[in-house]
Design goal:
187 residues, alpha+beta, 3-stranded antiparallel beta sheet, disordered C terminus
């Protein structure tokens, strides 16, 4: 891992966490926050954990489910202390924060579930643009194992699946029907 000038001291870790939350610009999932705070090789999880607990206790951050967000006081403190962090570390956190925001947005846009009722298992997957559904699928499957595999695949490749379906549905060279009145069938 690279070094960006993080000193390894607790007060600097608290400033780093606050800066990372501000850089993301929205409530940040704690797992994403861990990645941001541990960008520098000199940081460690235990230092992060203690600093996060202190920031929550002091009211500079607040929990929102699995996420944390800056309070108004935390935002004010960040504005005052962010320049105390090394410039290289700030740049790295800003870059990674953009990717964290993108991952969080994608997480809000991809929905999946597996249901089993009356001996039947089904998979449901949806991809939205953040507000409006772009694709909604519900497939009956051969069992829970197959449903779970479809769930995993859709979570990983929802955009590619949408693109493939779009290509198939809009391909004017190939008819969608196979009911015998297919003009291109010469067999």
């Amino acid at each position: 891992m690279p070094r960006y000038g993080f000193s390894g001291e607790a007060p600097v870790m608290r400033k780093l966490i606050l800066f990372a939350c501000q850089a993301v610009g929205e409530p940040v999932d704690v797992r994403e926050l861990i990645k941001l705070a541990l960008l520098d090789d000199n940081a460690d999880y235990f230092l992060f954990s203690d600093a996060l607990a202190g920031l929550l206790d002091n009211g500079l951050l607040e929990r929102d489910g699995e996420c944390v967000r800056l309070t108004a006081r935390g935002d004010e403190i960040t504005g005052i202390t962010e320049r105390e962090l090394p410039a290289a570390l700030r740049r790295a956190v800003i870059e990674e924060s953009a990717m964290a925001r993108d991952r969080q947005m994608r997480g809000r846009c991809v929905f999946t579930s597996v249901e089993t009722a009356d001996g039947l298992s089904s998979f449901t997957g949806a991809l939205t643009d953040g507000a409006v559904p772009l694709l909604e699928l519900k497939l009956q499957t051969g069992g829970e194992k197959q449903s779970a595999e479809l769930k995993r695949r859709f979570e990983k490749d929802a955009e590619t699946i949408l693109q493939k379906i779009w290509e198939i549905m809009t391909n004017n060279n190939e008819p969608l029907t196979t009911d015998g009145d297919d003009a291109s069938s010469d067999t």
